[in-house]
Amino acid sequence: MKVPSLRALSIATILCLGAGFTLVFFYAPLDADQGFVQKIFYLHVPLAICSLAGFMIAGVHAIRHLRSGDPVHDARSYVSIHLSVIFGVGVLLTGSIWAHASWGRWWVWDEPTLVSFLIVFLLYATYYPLRYAIEDRDRQARYASVFAITAGAFVPLNFLAVRMAQSLVHPRVFATTSGGLPGSMLFTFLVCLAGMALLWTCLVCFELAAKSASAKLSRLRRALEGETYAAPNRSRIAPSVPSRAASPLT
User: Shortest CA distance to 62 belongs to which of 82, 76, 52?
Assistant: First the structure.
């Protein structure tokens, strides 16, 4: 599959996000109960979906890494988790703002939807100390892949458990057969979701390309300094990034 260039992907992301948030403010109607504050839904929910999907994508690359031993998949798994954790921070921040505006409280501990996402977020936050604690790069990659697979399998199980639980205060906008949203709101949401997915993909590709370029520059610098055979100065956390790792899609 041919992967679009970073420039084309960036332009598509900007256009889709711009269209989505234009629809949010000028097309989607105000919610009858919450009013204007409900519009944060079009940011909060796409962030959450992309974050959780990114964790599962990282698990897929981790499986491919364990099967093939190819460091490309370890790099893609690492970057997917990295960006998904950042998106997760956005989910928690926007969720807290929305909760305070709607319920007068920044957090509700007896709401399973909120607490379950926090548990997933904190689980993946331990991914970095795990990599940092292992000196050997091969063992580091294998252990990190096992973690990504195990945690990635937990994400859909956690989602199903929450959907089966009795929600206390968190809205279930997709709980009905029709999606629980009017057509204009659903269309706006889908455009925002597509834009957020493009943003996640674009950022992952950008980080992989940046790490690959940095690795090439380091090799060139060592060669110019006559240290071609010297051991590279590698980060203990970030995996080595081969030049062909620039796409998370293949």
Answer: 76
The single residue listed with the structure tokens 């949401």 is: 189
Query: Are 76 and 61 contacting, i.e. CB atoms less than 8 angstroms apart?
Result: yes
Instruction: Over range 185-210, report the average pLDDT.
Output: 91
Handedness of CA 135, 136, 140, 143 (dihedral sign): negative
Specify the pTM: 0.81
Range of the domain at 71: 6-245
Residue 141 lies in a domain: yes
Q: 145-183: per-residue pLDDT in tens?
A: 999 999 988 888 877 766 666 555 455 555 544 446 778
Q: How many domains does the chain have?
A: 1
pLDDT exceeds cutoff 90 at 108: no
Scanning 104-182, the segments in alpha helix (DSSP H) are: 112-125, 127-133, 137-164
CATH number at residue 179: 1.20.120
Rounded distance between C-alpha atoms, residue 220 and residue 212, angstroms: 12
